[in-house]
Structures
1.
Amino acid sequence: MTGAERAGGAVAPDERLARAALTRVLEPGDEHAGRWLRSYGAVGFLERLLGGGEDVCPGTGGKRVEGWRRRAAGAEPARDLDAVRRDGGRFLVPGDLEWPRQLDDLGDARPVGLWVRGPADLRTWALRSVALVGARACTPYGAHIAADLATGLARRGWVVVSGAAYGIDGAAHRGALAAGGATVAVLACGIDTPYPRGHAQLIGRIAEQGLVLGELPPESHPTPARFILRNRVIAALTRGTVVVEARHRSGSLATARTAARLGRHTMAVPGPATSALSAGAHELLRGDATLVTDADEIVELVGDMGELAPARRGPVLPRDLLAPAAAHVLEAVPARGPTPTTEIARRAGTGPDETLARLYELHSLGFVERYGIGWQLTNNGTRPSNARRGDT
């Protein structure tokens, strides 16, 4: 199925054209405009803005309505749609086969539509996706963790979603691409206007192997407010959000908090307690976020029932395999010098015969050695490396 076919669905052409125009008129996430859009529909709302009259949107400030009208008068949706199609892209709206329905959880802040580049089906990919976000000015530790998590998720068949920014975002995208996996970049500008400029090549690779999408029409530029508003799409689109590194004031925390409000999983990776770049992640962990350190732990939260992370434990030592009675006697053998059986029995609180039987068992297993009337630990037992052999 081609991108144009996936973007077809049951949506009328005039509805798609009106929504394309409204992406020029409204700022992303404008809930006030979203209420009118829900009341009038895209075509009706646009007609009201273009038709004049003083009572277009009762209760909405005059300056706001006037701004909408000016932008609506200058919108050229057919030109925008043609420009995106020439670049191999498409414009998705609610009702399309490819529209990710989890975005509807945003209510009146739901995107008017999404401009998309890339060969994959967004709805299918979003069903099995995780957001990896964090600081732009990240540490080498943060970049390593982000790339490692993305690689692990990609190898397990999960889609990595991020914002294509410097730092953690870029490391996450590169980690997924390096594993031959799937990744989605959600931009705060037009999909034909790569930002940051230093990531133009990376965004181009994502468009070839994955998906690049945004709410803004072609040639739109990013603003600080648009970055924050973009984050709600990342949160809503995915099954969970992982914050790798973030300061106390960070857009990544906004992404995680939006995810929590929407009922998605929120996760964070711990860092040094002395690092300001980990302070935001630690703040989340003091709340309702879950601590994660690798892809297995992420999948355990966001995956299907039974996708559990492997049990974590230290290495198994030979003495861990001993029967309880033998282990108890072994603990009673002093670390230095040969010790008589009676003294070991006293320390262990067992009878001499039982103690002697256990000592011979431990001797056969290489845990103790006999010196005359006494017993001493071997290195397997474990005797200190600088212990000297007792006299026989």
Note: The two ends are 85 Å apart (CA to CA).
2.
Amino acid sequence: MEYLLAARFRGYYPVIIDIETSGLNSQTDAMLEIAAIMPAMDEQGYLYCAEKIHFHVLPFEGANLDPKALAFTGIDPFNPLRGAVDEREALTEIFKCVRKHQKNNGCNRSILVAHNAAFDQGFINQATQRCNLKRVPFHPFASFDTACMAGLTLGQTVLAKACEQAKIPYDNNEAHSALYDTEVTAELFFYMVNKWKALGGWPV
């Protein structure tokens, strides 16, 4: 069986992720929301969304909760209406979903895709260590950064401006929700990869 997606990124399965946090320091600050989008590839070699998964996350014990960061995101970490779960449950379920799609696409490892990816990767790595999780599907340090990709392909590195250049709708009122930002980042990633394919940059 031929796996087009596996051939596209050297056996890596790209997973688009966004995280909302209680600050900028992945060692001391909490992950408060996380969303992930699993892509698939059609017979012509174009990417599209196959599945979305999203969690509100409870701060880990002793986490720093920066009031400025909370005001920026508008998240009340302990609001019971959030239906938040602990970071172990959130990551366990996301990793399980990632491994399923990774296997279905014939890939041997997954790679994180995010806007300014080092930020999100740092929080995932720290939470993974805190929870002592095994069978982590992601490469520990390699990633696809859509900010860098957009700088190259669209001349813009800010997510909103890159989306404007690509004619992808972007609502500032919805921004800083992990699910919304993941959806927009996925659209941008798909646009850039698919555009490169359409221009003949990656023959099937």
Note: The chain has a mean pLDDT of 95.
3.
Amino acid sequence: MPDSNEARGAASTRATDDGFVRPGQGRLAHAPADHPLVRRPKVGVLLANLGTPDGYGYWSMRRYLNEFLSDKRVIDYDSWKWQPLLQLVILSKRPFSSGRNYQEIWNHELNESPLMTITKAQTARIAKTLAARHGDGVMVDFCMRYGNPSTESKVRELVEAGCEKIVFFPLYPHYAGATSATANDQFFRALMKEKRQPAVRIVPEYYDHPLYIEALAASVKRAYAALARKPDVLVASYHGMPKRYLMEGDPYHCQCARTTRLLRERLGWGSEAINTTFQSVFGPEEWLQPYTVDHVAALARQGKKHIAVIAPAFSADCIETLEEINGEIRESFEHAGGEEFTYIPCLNDDEAHIAALSAVIEENLSGWVRR
């Protein structure tokens, strides 16, 4: 049987439809009449992705790239060396080339990047899944580390809506300082500005979660079933990072290798059937190898004329997959003599992916919600 406070809380929930608990009701049973209204307590789930420019014009791209490339988690060079180069050279040229790349993949109907479109769809489907299990006691929203909607704005909205607990979920299957860690940093900065900080949980990486591996395997099987013949090799292309980061303790490289191995085992393939490579090299220092753009060309020269490429580190298709893999990397393969190049889309809002993400969230909601 519920205690008297719970009973009063239930009564106040039925008595109001605006989400507020008023003096004399529920938790405010003994509060004075002039006590500020408070929201009924909820649990928030905040999904976080990398980010997107607001548009592909010069100034939108410059603002986005400046925020991204000024992040010490992404580029950790001394500011006195890096910022003059960034502000005076890189940001005077790169917004034009990056803008052209974004324009090619832009969702012109909704006037937003594909990453924004897909993240919205993922959020809506996860929210529907959790609502079916927990009603309106769990709120689901998303934010971007760079650009809009900002992490700070979404934390503020969740707190104002009555979320006294927040599960923060960086949408990266693998941990890396330049992705997961910087998303967490921004979340903590947002919490520093809250008068009443919620209790929080950070969702860890899920690179070996059985449902995630199952979703990857299903996407490969689905793609292969649509082809006239099986590709010679499946290339698992992960976003790269400087090799120095691995030597300094970042676990990303090892987690990527484990994902590839688990995917291969789930598919029942031999050890040579899937290759692990890394893309998006930037700057002068050595990055994790082999580089995808060079590796696919080498495969073509070795007589492997039909390959497929999958990007397990990305939870949603974006500039690095739609333009880099399906553009630059495809061209490298074809120019080296390759004949058939198949890009297997990211898991996006696929049903199996949503089930995997929802399962990860449920694990991190444990003890905070009633099943």
Note: The chain is about 45% helix and 15% strand.
4.
Amino acid sequence: MSESVIADFVGKFNASASDRGQPATGRILLSQKRLVLAGEGGKTTIPLSDIFDVAVGHVPPDLGDFFDSTVTIAFRRGDRRHVAAVEADDGKIGKFSTVLFKALLNGTRTTVKHPARVGGRVTDETFHPAKLYLEPKTVRFKGPDSTFAVDLSTVTDFERGRRDVNGTKQEVLSVRHMQDGQAMTSLAALDSAREMSILGRYLRLEYSDIVADLADISLSEQETELLVAVYSTGPGVSLANVVDVEPSQLEMLLADMREKELIEDGDETTTLTAKGRIVVSDKLEAVNS
């Protein structure tokens, strides 16, 4: 490749666009413009502009049971859709997936509103242009009017939907997250549906890590009720006046919640972490369903 290579390693790969029935071993090269899978039997070149989906740790059934730690890339060639699977050790796959997402998304034009909500309050912020950049565990939006970052470890939920953006209906990504101890919602509209899908895939990948951590946490009904009380209690209100437990037991429960990284102490009151808010959201959904 004439352009600068940003990833170059040896691994296994297969692509439905090639004639290989078995995965080949060769070089995987990535630049800002294309992905090349080069082996003894030839090479498959995939322009990044043709990639419309990336999945980490999943291999389509039609590529067989040959792969373990993988990145699967869906791309178009002409009017047909194809997939390619790349396999290497966990460290290489982790670095490759991060670099690939950055190559696909960095510099993407967006129209953002931040914050659109603070807690339950709708703000008077307006949509303005910005460009998106992926940083370690962070999505940063840089614009002429403002720059802000979403710490992915604080994301509690996200969804896609159509909203009015400066007079036109567009598909918008709504991200609920924590910032400076406050729950807020930020909105981002992307010009490209393809890039919106890839960004959604990247966020789901990061969000699944938080959910996986929660799967290892066991909570009693009393602990869950305490988290709901923390969610419902505003500044200046003592938890001791809200929950029906002895003060000594309350302190023990709060200490356990801090150790499990479900709550944290702010300047005025105890607040939920991103993990804690996910637990409470699931609890409230179960009650209301």
Note: The longest strand covers residues 168-179.
